[in-house]
TrEMBL record:
This is BNR repeat-containing protein. The lineage of its organism: Bacteria, Bacillati, Actinomycetota, Actinomycetes, Kitasatosporales. Pfam families: BNR_4. The keyword Signal applies. Keywords: Signal. Residues 1-24 form the signal peptide. SUPFAM superfamilies: Sialidases (SSF50939). It comes from the Bacteria.
Length: 474
């Protein structure tokens, strides 16, 4: 047998013994999660600092978006030591930031009063909503086109309009909290908000089309009866873990309910949050459906998403485990939703009596994902929280999952494992981060970098450095 014949025979045998497609799959195997720290830059050496509701006003994980990336530039917003609202930008990869001070100062020492940013791609504007907690809000937007060609535009106060207490004349509610901007697939900008107060509020949506804002209306209900083994409650509010468009064009929202009446919990030091729910919209937030597709609410209509609606709860949990509200969510490249939730598991007891202390001592985070078959899988992340606070979820280009935990720790799991191989990739060493961090949800898709804003620990009201750290992902 000649060498050529032997080689040909070997190739035939290899083809015959290897299952079809296996070689291609081996060549195309996705890498697992990994992080490489590439930069750590300072935004402000003296950012405002005070602890409120166990958080900082410049670094609340629900802040959407305190840090964002668009067309090669990254933008950050915060309050300085003298309480001035500030917005900065840098070209991706740059170590220095250009800063603009806006004509507004933080009104209260309340960590809810965050600054949230959004981009209306339809006209290239940057929008900021700030300084509200069950009160009025303050709103400002940039000149049209400022974000479309940033290198050729000045970055100064003249690029921003006047600070308003409406959305260009549209008044939403006198009890406004939790602004979250989200861009529609067509480039319009939506603003999610809560009307009302903790334990008795409704979620609403407004929309900007490049010329004006329209209030689409409220879509969650505060009414109805919820009964636990301890008692009943007749009012509540839905807390969103996020609101995001997926690759399929659906608007996804995980949530938990908070009851107004404390009689539903086993002890007064607990928290009345219960159940993890999920709904989606296929018509840009006008109609809401369960994971199975059943309609359960209409924005601005009489039928809103309510406690007890069949099919909305995807992970049931009673109010006795200090379930955290406003944690985190993401959608993968196929549009499948997943979330991070956290609470005190039952193995540590069936009644939390002090939610801050109990979560700090025994709280655990869990990864919840809907698979292609339509079933939900929950996996405990085997890293203690060591904090009462929240984690943020992001996915890399291979759909590996990363949870950025309190103190800037990064843990991750691979998609190939079914998100079962969670491990610590970065332990937060050297950051001296206070607790929660603000993740740039928009940057990963643009240059493969996980970027988050953190504030260093201080005490009392002594200002401290505010920084942005960058990690390259696969």
């Amino acid at each position: 047998m000649t060498p050529t014949t032997a080689a040909a025979l070997a190739a035939v045998l290899l083809t015959a013994t290897v299952p079809p497609g296996a070689a291609a799959q081996a060549r195309a195997a996705a890498p697992g999660p990994a992080v490489t720290r590439v930069a750590d830059t300072q935004l402000d050496g003296r950012a405002v600092y005070f602890e409120s509701y166990n958080g900082l006003v410049n670094n609340n994980a629900f802040q959407k978006n305190g840090l964002l990336t668009y067309k090669g530039y990254q933008y950050a917003a915060w309050y300085t030591a003298d309480r001035t609202a500030t917005v900065a930008r840098r070209a991706l990869g740059a170590n220095t930031w250009q800063t603009v001070r806006l004509p507004h100062k933080l009104t209260l020492d309340d960590s809810h009063n965050v600054i949230s940013m959004g981009v209306s791609r339809i006209d290239g504007r940057l929008h900021l909503n700030m300084d509200s907690h069950s009160s009025g809000f303050f709103y400002v937007k940039s000149a049209a086109g400022l974000l479309d060609a940033p290198a050729g535009r000045a970055w100064d106060a003249g690029q921003f309009g006047a600070v308003q207490t409406t959305l260009d004349g549209l008044a939403l509610t006198s009890q406004f909290t939790y602004p979250q901007f989200v861009a529609t697939p067509e480039g319009r900008l939506q603003l999610s908000y809560r009307a009302g107060v903790s334990g008795n509020g409704r979620n609403g949506l407004a929309e900007y089309d490049g010329s004006r804002w329209t209030n689409l209306g409220e879509w969650s209900s505060a009414t109805g009866t919820y009964t636990s083994e301890h008692g009943s409650s007749a009012a509540r509010n839905m807390y969103l873990h996020g609101i995001d468009y997926g690759a399929d064009g659906r608007l996804h929202a995980f949530f938990t309910w908070r009851e107004q009446n404390n009689t539903v919990v086993c002890a007064p030091g607990g928290i009345t949050n219960h159940d993890t729910g999920y709904v989606y919209s296929s018509d840009r937030g006008r109609t809401w459906r369960t994971a199975a597709g059943a309609v359960v609410g209409t924005t601005g209509g009489s039928d809103k998403v309510a406690v007890g609606d069949p099919g909305t709860v995807v992970d049931p949990l009673n109010p006795d485990h200090s379930l955290m509200n406003q944690e985190s969510q993401a959608t993968d490249s196929a549009g499948l939703p997943q979330a991070i939730i956290s609470y005190v598991p039952g193995r540590f007891g069936q009644c939390t009596t002090d939610y801050v202390k109990d979560r700090t001592a025994n709280g655990r985070a869990f990864h919840l994902v809907k698979n292609a078959a339509g079933t939900w899988k929950k996996t405990e992340i085997p890293v203690p929280l060591g904090s009462s606070q929240r984690s943020r979820l992001v996915l890399d280009r291979y759909d590996n999952a990363y949870a950025v935990m309190p103190y800037g720790r990064i843990v991750a799991a691979s998609k190939d494992s079914g998100y079962s191989d969670w491990k610590t990739l970065f332990d937060g060493a050297g950051l001296n981060a206070f607790g929660e961090v603000v993740v740039d949800e928009t940057r990963l898709a643009q240059d493969g970098v996980l970027s988050f804003m953190y504030q260093q620990r201080s005490s009392g009201t002594t200002p401290s450095p505010l920084r942005v750290v960058d990690f390259r992902l696969p």
